[in-house]
Structures are given as C-alpha cells and as structure tokens.
Design a protein that fits this description.
By secondary structure, the chain is an alpha/beta fold. It has helices at residues 48-54, 69-74, 90-98, 122-125, 131-137, 140-156, 190-206, 236-239, 245-252, 277-287, 302-305, 311-321, 335-351, 357-370, and strands spanning 2-6, 21-25, 34-35, 56-61, 78-82, 108-111, 161-162, 210-211, 213-216, 257-260, 293-298, 325-327, 375-376. The protein has one domain (54-356): TIM Barrel. Helix 7 (190-206) packs parallel to helix 9 (245-252). The longest helix has 17 residues, at 140-156. It starts with a strand and ends with a strand.
C-alpha cells in the first residue's frame, strides 16, 4: 500500500501552515489530478531548506534503512537502497522509515533492479535475466509481463521506484570500467533497445513501480565508465541519430522519470550532461518538450569530481541546469554530513541569487505530482 497525501501545491489562499489528509490505495494513478484545497497553505510557503531537502535522494544500505531516519524526518525526497541482499523484513522497515516524513510526504524508495548483474534485492524479488538476454530471447510482451511481476514483488517489499530500464544502445562486453552499459543494454540496435526497454518500463508501471529510463541522452558507446573516469558519449551528430532514439520514443510514451548521464557530448556540451543546461533545459525540456521528473546519475562520480565538482557544487549546478532530483553516494558514516552540506549549498545558492527559488518550487512540484500529492487548483 502507498499513502497518498492530499496537500496544497499552488494558489490555495490563506497563510496558515498546510495540513494533510491521507487515503490509501494499492494502485495509485501515475499522474496526480487537480482537486479542491482541503486546507490553507502551499509549497510556496515552504522554507528554501525544506524545498532543497525534497530534491535530494540519500543512499542507504538496504539492511539498515533506519539509519537515514533523521534525513527522512528532515524531508528528503528519496532514498536509494544499496547492497546485494535485502532483509526479509524490508517492507516493515521502510514503512517505519516513511512514517517519520513530515506531513506524511514519504520519500521515493528506489533501487537498481535492472536484471543480470545489476540487482539489489534478487533474494526477495527473484533473479531476472540481463537486459541483453531479455532482448535476445524474449518478445516485448514477455518482457512486459516479467517486469510487471518484478514490480509487484518490489512493491510488496516497499520499493516504489526502479532506476531502470537502461535505454542506451550498446553492444559492448561490459559493464566494466571501460563500458558502463554492456549487458545492461537491450540491444546494439536502437529500434530493439527502444521497443524492449519501453516494454520493461510499461511492465514496471503496470506493477505499481515508477520506472526511470536512463541514461539520457544516451550513454552507449561512451569512451569510459563515468563512475571511474571522465568520459564522453558519441558525438552529437551520431548520438542524435542512434542513441537518442529510444529516449525520444520514451518521451512520446510519457515515461514518468528520466535519469541524466554524467558523460560529456561532443558537439552538444563540454560539461557532464547531468550539470548541463544545454542537455536538460535546452534539449530535454525545450526541444523535446518533456515535463516529467528529471534526476541525475550519481553526482559522486569521478567524471564530476575529476573536473572540480564536489557533490555540493554539482547539486547546485544540476538544479540550475533544470534537474529536479539529485543522487549521490556516500558511506554510512558520511551520509548525514554530505546531505546536510548539500542542502546547505542549495540554500546558500538561493540566498546568493545563483539559483532561483522558483526553480526549486518547479522541481518540488514535479516531485510531489509523481508522489501523487494532489495539486490544488488556483484561486
């Protein structure tokens, strides 16, 4: 079950702090609808710090999710589960964690359940083939059914978002330090990668889990793995004809969330895509017209650190470029300090006029819509 929070998001009138009423449903709609305001107030009244908290996703080992209770209580927008074997009581632990969230607005609970070598909780949800194996041996209908079954088991364990499918077009032997995709890609042919990847995404949605397609605008054929080295995607003249195709089809299918890569793109941007306004605002938002949730790949990646971006600096840059949520990695003992420093950096950027408060309001509005927080009508 997932809690739906009815709360004011815009133009509700009054100045009192908002209150919330909750209902439950096992299969919430993918898009929030507009309803009358149940109480005064809106996110326009939120402090900058609270807005900033909602844009941050904190990492946690799936065996100790309670360790990020202070961050969830402060209002972070998501938690990403790391590890290789989930405890049998994960669902109970996650329910307890969500209960600490302010105003009942719980975090997205996300993980990487792609298949093959990229699975975090196969012991709970079952092992599934790699994307490449699915693409080579299964029809789109079979892939969709498999993903639906997977999603149903993920939801039963308390997970609401899957950072999958990979829509990159890649035929390499990875994933490894040279090739970030490899068997994570459904195919080296853009049409197959598109059809099969979108079948997986549709299956996740049918099972009640939010899919996040990645790594926009295409990471297949990159010069290296951005987790361990700065790397570039194929030149834009090639990428736009091949690697971008599955993402264009995904946007046409109205996928709810997109993850941005950390690779540079010769001919489009010399910055990592995750901090590039040319990629997020110029290409994804303006040119392709995407209005869904945009999140970064991990801002702890060497591709960013090697060129002088700390997690804090990269977060501000990513939000300024148009991203709505940011991911990072950190050891258990460092999560609290990195989270605090990251949120504080965003608050400082707003105070200094480098990042607009309205940019944060726009980001949080998208986050809340995907969480099924009801958007109040104006007036």
């Amino acid at each position: 079950m997932i809690v739906l929070v009815v709360s004011c998001v815009s133009g509700c009138g009054g100045t009192a702090a908002s209150s919330s009423t909750t209902t439950t449903t096992s299969t919430p709609p993918m898009h929030a609808s507009t309803v009358a305001c149940p109480s005064p107030g809106s996110i326009a009244t939120w402090s900058v710090r609270r807005l900033a908290e909602q844009t941050v996703v904190v990492p946690v080992d799936e065996s100790d999710v309670a360790s990020v209770t202070p961050e969830v209580a402060a209002g972070v927008g998501g938690v990403i589960l790391l590890g290789a074997s989930a405890p049998s009581d994960l669902g109970v632990a996650l329910q307890s964690l969500a209960s600490s969230a302010p105003d009942g607005i719980g975090p997205f609970v996300m993980t990487d359940e792609e298949g093959g070598v990229i699975q975090r909780m196969a012991n709970l949800v079952g092992s599934i083939p790699s994307a490449r194996q699915m693409g080579a041996t299964m029809s789109p209908a079979q892939i969709r059914r498999l993903a639906t079954s997977l999603a149903q088991r993920m939801r039963a364990a308390g997970v609401t978002m899957d950072l999958a499918p990979v829509l990159d077009v890649d035929g390499g032997q990875g994933p490894d330090n040279q090739d970030p995709d490899g068997t994570r890609s459904f195919s080296a042919h853009e049409k197959i990668a598109s059809v099969d990847g979108l079948a997986f995404a549709a299956g996740l949605q049918a099972g009640g889990v939010v899919p996040v397609v990645k790594h926009f605008p295409g990471l297949g054929g990159a010069t290296g793995n951005t987790d361990v080295t700065p790397a570039s995607a194929p030149p834009w003249s090639i990428l736009r004809r091949v690697g971008l195709v599955p993402f264009e089809n995904a946007l046409d299918a109205r996928v709810p969330a997109v993850m941005i890569s950390n690779a540079t793109i010769p001919g489009l941007t010399g910055l990592p895509a995750s901090v590039s306004s040319a990629v997020i605002t110029g290409l994804l938002r303006d040119q392709l017209g995407y209005q869904g949730l945009v999140m970064t790949d991990s801002l702890s990646a060497v591709a960013l650190g090697a060129i002088g971006y700390s997690v804090e600096k990269a977060t501000v840059a990513a939000l300024e470029a148009g991203a709505d949520m940011v991911l990072f990695d950190a050891g258990a003992r460092a999560v609290a300090s990195v989270t605090n420093d990251t949120v504080s950096a965003v608050v400082s950027a707003v105070g200094a006029g480098k990042l607009g408060r309205l940019r944060l309001v726009s980001a949080v509005t998208r986050i809340l819509k995907l969480k099924h927080v009801k958007v109040c009508s104006a007036g």
